[in-house]
Every structure is written in structure tokens, then in C-alpha cells.
Amino acid sequence: MRRMQLDDVILRWKKTTRALKIYEQEYGKALTDCLERRTDAELVHFRDPVEAAAFFCLVEAMKTKNLK
């Protein structure tokens, strides 16, 4: 999978973020920011862009919560 395949998911999630309540929008932005930082090298093991998005967002959530 290539980064440009993830762009459709990022765009949909950004649109959905705008529909969230104002206090929830920061979370949607954090998710899309996380996805925008991904590179082709990180995505090479995925075929499904939604699976890749979920994986990297969950990894980011784990890092933020400081769980091991």
C-alpha cells in the first residue's frame, strides 16, 4: 500500500471531524494528524487503508496513554 491510498481515508476523517461536537474535534484532528505523518515505508505491510489507519491510530493512542 502507498501513502496516497491513505489520503482518501484522511479526507473522509477530516470531513467527519468537522461534524463532531466542538470539544470532540481535537480528537478527530489528532487522528488525522497521526495519519498524515505516515510514510510509504510504514504502510508497506498493509493492503487495506482503513486497517492501516486503525493500526496507526491505535498505536498513537497507546503511546499517548503510556501503556506498554
Structural summary, described in words:
The chain is mainly alpha-helical. Helices cover 74% and strands 0% of the residues. It contains four helices and no strands. It has helices spanning 3-19, 25-36, 40-43, 49-65. Helix 1 (3-19) runs antiparallel to helix 2 (25-36) and helix 1 (3-19) crosses helix 4. The longest helix has 17 residues, at 3-19.
Q: What sequence of helices (H) and strands (E) makes up the elements?
A: HHHH
Strand content: under 5%
How can the largest sheet be summarized? none
The chain-level mean pLDDT equals 94
| Terminal-residue CA separation | 27 Å
Number of strands: 0
Radius of gyration (Å): 12 Å
Query: By helix and strand content, what is the structural category?
Result: mainly alpha
Shape designation? flat
Query: What count of helical segments does DSSP give?
Result: 4
Low-confidence stretches: none
How much helix is in the residues? over 70%
